[in-house]
Amino acid sequence: MIFDKKISFSVVLVMTLLLLAGCSGFLLGQDQGGSSDKGQQDEKSNRSVTIGLSQIGSESDWRMASTRSVQEAFSPGRGYYLIFDDAQQKQENQIKAIREFIDQGVDYIILDPMVETGWDSVLSEAKEAGIPVIVYDRRVDVKDESLYTCWIGSDFLLEGRRACGWLSDYLKDRGINQDINIVNIQGTLGASAQIGRSEALDEAVLAHSKWKLLAKESGDYTSAKGKEVMNDMLRRYGGIINVVYAENDNMAYGVIDAIEAAGYTIGADITKGEILVLSFDASKAGMELALDGMIAVDTECNPLYGPKLVEIIEKLEAGEKVEKETFIEEDQFSAVGYINSVKVEDTSYPVTYLTPEIMKEREY
Amino acid sequence: MSAKKNSLSDLFGKIVRQQIFIPIAALFILLLFNLIFDPGFFVITLGENSAGDPVLSGNLITVINMGSELAILAIGMTFVTAASGGQDISVGAAIAIAGSVLLRVLCGDNTRPAAGELQTSFLVAFIVSCIVAMAFGAFNGVLVSIFKIQPMVATLILYTAGRSIAAWINNNELPIISDPEFGYFGGFIPGIPVPTPVFIAIACMIVAALVLKFTNLGLYTQAVGINENSSRLNGLNPVFIKWLTFVILGLCVAVAALIKVSRLSSINYSVIAKDIEMDAILAVALGGNALSGGKFNLWASIIGAYVIQLLTTTLFKYEVPSDALPAYKAVVVILLVVFSAPTVREKLAHLKKSPAAKKGVA
Amino acid sequence: MSKKIRNMTDSNMLLSITIIVFLLMYIGAIIFQGKGFTKPQTFFNILNANAGLIILACAESLVMITGGIDISVGGMTALVSMCCAVYLDHHNGNVPVSMLIALLIGLAYGLVQGYLVAYLDIQPFIVSLAGMFFARGMTTIVNSDPFNVVNEQFVALKLTRINVPGMGSINKKGVYVNAYVEIGVIIAILIVILMFVMLRWTKLGRSFYAVGGNKQSALMLGINVKKTKFLSHLICSVLAGIGGYVYFLHVGSGAVTNGQGAEMNAIASSIIGGTMLTGGVGNIIGSFIGVLSLATIQNIVATAGLGEAWWTGITIAAMLCLFLVIQSVLMARKKKMMKK
Amino acid sequence: MSEGALLELRGIYKSFPGVKALQNVDFNLRKGEIHALMGENGAGKSTLIKVLTGVYTKDEGDITLDGQSVNIRSPQDAQHMGISTVYQEITLCPNLSVAENIYIGRSDNVIQNWKEMFSGAEKMLKALDIPAEATAQLASCSIAVQQMVAIARAVDMDCKVLILDEPTSSLDDQEVQKLFKLMRDLKERGVGIIFVTHFLDQVYEVCDKITVLRDGKLVGEYPIKELPRVELVSKMLGKELDDMSEIKTHDVVKDDDDSVPVIYEAEGLSSTEGIKPFDFHIKKGEVNGFVGLLGSGRSECVRAIFGADRVLSGTVKKNGKIVKIQKPIDAMKNGIAYLPEDRKVDGIIGELSVKDNIILALQVMKGFFKPLSKSEAEAFAAEYIDMLKIKTASADTPIKSLSGGNQQKCIVARWLLTHPEYLILDEPTRGIDVGTKVDIQKLVLKLAEEGMSITFISSETDEMLRTCSRLIVMRDRKVVGELKGEDLTQSKIMSTIAGGEVQS
Fold first, then answer.
1. Contact flag C133-B292 (C-beta cutoff 8 Å)
2. pTM score, two decimals?
């Protein structure tokens, strides 16, 4: 047996096969292009719309509720075929997924972007391929706004302002006039929610002379990391912490765990040395904690995008125009009481007093 | 050189050459470091937790508490390393699976059961999770022993699939158990100020010691790890023994999973016990055991595990951010292995012998 | 036929298996998955997305052939991309210097790890484990926030596309789009060729195989085992530096999570490509195909619309399992044949 | 410096932790000389050779090559200086091709020219009559061929000094003759050859001079004609050798004595290793043996008896009762013990202590849940170390640091400890020193006298003739004959092996 002949043969073989695959792909691709158009028409009668959904991951209850909502909304029964891709917390994977969707020739791409930047090139590819991209939840920051069709999501800054507004009103209402030491357990740095919520807190700290931001550190939206970070903060500052501003429920869960393990008490009574926890998302677990008073106020971040997205795609299918930016409605829950509404920039937002009945009504 | 001095240095040499010397020395150096720079490190206080039960707290308690899982895993990993000459890199993923099973069995379909809504007792759930973890260990074992795939490669399969399987077990949900009793395994049993994981770890060590004393597991795994052919011709069944070590590791994984899950009363399958396999392997290596299998010293591995935890706790104390921690850990690990490397030791010995040689080659 | 198989070296045997399985898989994907896989761009996208991994797999294969292992390549990817990103954006750096930084990091890593493994005889697993820890930790110390690089020179390079002549497809709008690859792919393919030639036609290359086959024998055969081991780790780390940069060029961001799990993917690719962890057996072309196989599996799973994220991991593991068992069974059968 | 001197070693010292391997050793080699380096195992031959080839660095002493003082730091150095070596264990890379194994590590060229290499290797293999293809992977060749390839490599290098460290242990007679011819050719060309072997016949066939080492010290250098065998052996052992012929004085059980019960009986036994089904039996207290050329299937037969390979067919009776022996543990439970052919691969457990190695088999038989207590184990180890005169620093020394002969004794001890009724010894005397060889043969006869049945295999026919009362002759994996009584002679064995025909 000849050693190098064999190997060179196999190399040549592979190269030829790859080339063949490529060429035939070219030919087939053309072919397919034609036939798939036809096929599209056939399918049109069945009204099967293929949608690619690129989701960030499944790191929290909120995210999973959101995914489920979209998946349920675009069920095959309603004439949709949804390709779901979980990017496992990597923008890189999302870009890869979008490219795959383009290659697969989907009709729409729905994207929940991991971070705001870095989307120009892949979104222009989608645009070139004529596939509308609907961005939801987090935003994208692209030079050319026409790269995506529309955005739908939460107003994170508003959420943050509502939370801070609640705290401010609450302190006023209770007549607490001491220094308020706050720690901020941030979300994944660079995420829109983190940016908006942190900004609101920073604003509020500037606006209130008594409020002091002791530290901020990222807990990556996970309870384990949140607990770790909180442990660290407690070690550093101990009992002087009055308020923990946790940027989602999962982290709040970890935070509460850490505080209890360290022997401090959680509650709204700051004057008695209790630590007050603010949280966002209003997931089921978070709401339960809010019901127990462990979370003083939980500002909702509505994950149920499914129906809204269906609405948008139906409009697009019908050839109608859609708004470039839409906010999703959100609520604020608290079982602490005293405060019924929060005013942010002259608009009044209600605060729902949390009862077990309300819990039962919620879908997630 | 006088004879007396000679025998003394011989004795010293003997101690130094002992395998267990390395991890113990590392442990002492770390403790000494803390003693010099902050004796407060050793303070242990008796406080009360939120439920009003007495708890001990302090850095040393943290070390023996948080090091429990690693110590337990180090036991299993040592056996696997000894018999198969390779390492199982899937233990983190397997913990995710075992933990998920535990919660799934306890919770059923309800991901947020209240205190009284648990489906079964903890014991049943734990046994089920043990069986599952051992089954996955057995799967690894089959690949390694029957198909003769190198352990690291074989366990790469479960490493890749494990967390996905864990997600699938709980339908991608993250169940939370609010029953405070469930937290006992990873926290404190009311009235006992010492964290429960410490007891679990000690129990595991006692079991391991008894197994080593009253069975031939030690001899068999070493024999198989050193020379499979000879072992077979001496009537051993190397395939079975290798397989067995993986099953044992599976059991260790289930116990570690119980502690891990109980600590949080919840599970996040994508991050739970992340990179713990690397730490477990490191523990075995720090214990001076050859990663290529054969002779082992279980206690050295266990001490190795606590060295790693002590290092982590020390670094935390000096406010090293948790993400940057690995960098410091790496430096210490490299220093440790460099100084325990036979070639380096030989060279150092040479330096000591020749008086002309300069001292202090750090 | 049986004689041919008997005379085949282990490396060639495993390579053939890999190629066959990969082709079957790709053809299967074309048949069952339709649309996407017939487009050349699908294939080139796989290349684009995995150019960095291809280089890492080459690096990994090299140390594995020499009988070692390096699990620091993923961490290095993160470190390289973060350092370059910080340099480019926070210090207004230029691209050539950032490349130099990547190479220097690789070189430094290679020198240290190589020295520890080769001259101090420390187990490569532990050395590179520490290397991985160090890289990951260092990345956070350099900068913990993920960000996309906006340096114009860099972005221009990142967006540079090289059209593949004669290949392309017609998109939904009916426009012909030429298939393209990114610069990283060119670098990756150059490295694959370079490494292939090095391992096959140079004395150094063959001594890597010799050392991996039997260290003691190689020593007796007059090969400088320590130097060879050292070089294998040195080249591996330098390649990992380059691979890290190529990866960085593709994703265009500095993030702690960059290259997470890349070491395991590189190892898995090498194994699928027929490199054995025991050393002495392996082939760079195989590793290249290994990466493609792995990426193709991922692609198939992702586009199959299975709906749930966990399928990716499970499917890849199943494929890996299949590959390993096939390899193991075939090698065992070959050994049996040899005896007769 | 004497005339014609090629290599001179003066006052070589080398020690390892706890062992003084070489003390003040001198050695001279002239051009065109074949020089035997003799000594018991552990005498320091291997260490000396490793010092010479740069594997170890000497602690003290001078090496002069061609009149120049040299410092050999690595095998490459040695190669460059023209010292090439063939080691006892095959030191080639199994994953590379035959040709590569011949050429690797020898030139400074950067580029590997495969064509040239293959054609060169092909030529050489043909010239040396080695039945291998240059392109084949080395692992696919038989051990003997691998050894020949190693020799080819060493010979091909333009060497001044050729060291052959027990190259013949895996070669058959024909191959040995081929090697000797090669050695004589090289001698003509002025190459100095250092030859290490345990086969005295071979020494006297090709060598010109003998240097004897004992316990790491030089005993002396002698021209071959001035040192008769007996004297050589006594110099190696450091004592007068009791005459070998004296060994066979005991009454040995004869096969045709019907009063003695049959211990073990097999019918139509065959295994996966490709031996033809064979019948075999052994009586209580009998010593018999399998003879045949290497690869004739003699080891495979005993492995089948012990269940070491997968048994395909055959019925086995132990003490008249049918038993099933599928794996080693079955055999052990039936009182059969097996000392394997390849001590390193199948026998010792390198890193484990002498004690653990000795008790292993007994321990396995006792079972997983009944470990011997520490004191029991120590007592057993001490008993057998004493009984078999095993030279070891302590019972806790790792077995791999013992010399070959002592390792072999440990393995023998391991099996004796299980008190087998039937002991199989496959090449117990291979690669060990003369003293231990004699010890083992004596032991075999003593055990047989005590009623143990023994099957003995050795490459050295005279050992077999001395110990066995019945020989089963193998050829091409088939039993071709049985010899006993009067027929037990060298020539008869030879002719039976050759199949009655005269071999060319």
1. no
2. 0.80
